[in-house]
Fold:
Amino acid sequence: MSTIKVDTYLTRGGASEIAIDKLKGVTTADSISVTAGSVTTTLQEGLAKTRIRFNQQGTPSITASFNIASIVDGGTGDTTLTITNDYANVNYTINAQNDDNSVTTQIVSDDVFVGSYRQRTVDGNNSLVDAPINYTITHGDLA
Amino acid sequence: MSTVILDTITGKSTATTITIGSTPVVSASANSMTIRGEGSNQTSIQQGLCKFFSQIEGEGTISTRDSFNQSSISDNGTGDYDFAFTTNMGNDDYAQMSNADSASGHIAMQYSQGEQHTTGCRIFCTEIHANNSTDSDVIMVTVHGDLS
Structure:
């Protein structure tokens, strides 16, 4: 066990910068506090664990993503997204939207798993439709 | 290139206060830390962090499955929920996203601009094809913005 006590970091050139590849809490490995405003928040809790932009039309394709392994076409307006690094439980939060103002995105809660989740896009008649641009972001505890 | 390998870094003057340059990592004062993003640009850690999330059971007696920075939830009636923050937001201009389970065409959304408070927010759930307020077994909410 080694400890360095210091108040301020500067580079040798005096810049306000620290170069590091990995951060880990000491008291609790998965909890690092960050000052935000006049209070502190938890770095790990605040990080989005997955994000994706994808196209449902034709052969579904991922435009950009983070921690998403693949998407599976379940039919019109029905997509399952698989996660690379799984969640610890199924109680994570999923928020999804699309670019069509007559279409809404829903979460199929019976098909939310630690390694995947399913979402649907429906029109005003609750009929499934494909949307060209879909955005989804998730927050929760990784395994 | 220099490398420091150690287990613990604590503040010398105040154990819980460490400063990089003039930017407190953890301290009693507000500030902003930048981090280099995936490319060459930098972004703010504080601005990028989600400040609140929650997944709840919204049918029957409502309950929380998992949450962050949530002190309580309230059932205001069919499809009408209040979420209270543990640590308040700095203003009511935060970005709020919500979704619901797919059953019967459920959608969840912000109740109204006037129902976003520094202390919490209000969500309602409706059926898009009937425009009826309805409970959903899954309501998911996230908030991004400035803490107090």
Chain A touches chain B through 56 residues (CB under 8 Å). The mean pLDDT of chain A is 88. Chain A is about 5% helix and 40% strand.
